[in-house]
Amino acid sequence: MTFSMKRLLAIFNKDYKDLTRNLYVSFTLLVPLVLAAVFGRQGIDSIDLYYMVFNMALCLVAAYIQCSLIAEEKEKNTLRGLMLSPASTMEILVGKGLLSFVTTILVIGISAYFLGYMPENLLIVSLGIILSTVFYIALGTALGLVTRSVMEASVIIMPFVFIFSFGTSLSVLAEKYPILQAADYLPNSQLIMIAKEVEMGTGLAELWSHFGIIGLWVIGMALITMVIYRKRMVD
Prior knowledge:
Order of helices and strands: HHHHHHHHHHH
Low-confidence stretches: none
Transmembrane segments: 21-39, 51-71, 92-116, 122-146, 153-174, 207-229
Membrane topology: Multi-pass membrane protein
Structural class: mainly alpha
Distance between the termini: 23 Å
Number of strands: 0
Subcellular location: Membrane
Strand content: under 5%
InterPro entries: ABC2_TM
Protein name: ABC-2 type transport system permease protein
C-alpha cells in the first residue's frame, strides 16, 4: 500500500476539528504560554527556567494532546474503524501525530519569544527540540492507546508531566540518593544539557552523546507504541 498524503491530511483535519471542540484539552496550550509571559516580564535569564517551560510544553502539548486525541477516538469507538480503514499504520500514526507536532513547535516558539530566549546556535537547539517532540508524541500515543477516555488520559499523563517537567531537580539530591543520578539520562535532562553546552559554544559533533540518548528514548518509545498499536488491532 502506497503512502497517501491525502489520507494523512484527512486525519490531521479531523484531529484539528476535534481539538478545537474540546476546550478543556485546548486550555493546556495556554499553560506554558502564560508561564513564559510571566517569567519573561520578570526578566529572568536562566536556561533551567527556560527549559522548564519548554519541557512542560512538550508534556502538556505533545504528550497530553496526543494522548487525548487517541483516547477520544477510543471513547467514541472510532479508533477501530480508523485501524480497519484503507489508511496504513504509518499514515494513521503520522497523521495522528502531525497536529501535536505542529502545535508543540508553535507553542515552544512563542514561549521562547515571550521569554526572550535566543540560543547561540538555533539549529542545534531546534534539532534537540524536534527530536524530543517526536519522543513525547510517541509517549502520548502509547498512553492514549491504553486509556479508555479523555478523562482517564488527563489522569494518566500527570506523573509524566511531573517527571519530565521537574525531574531535573531530582539530580540535586543525587549525592544523598545515588539512584537519582538516573534522572540525568531522562530526555528532558539531555535537552537542557544540549542547551547549556550550546551556550558555551559547543558544536554539534561534541553533542552526539546527548542526541544519541534522546534518540534511544525515541526508538524505545516508538517500539512500545507499535507493539501496543498492533495489539489493539487484534483485540
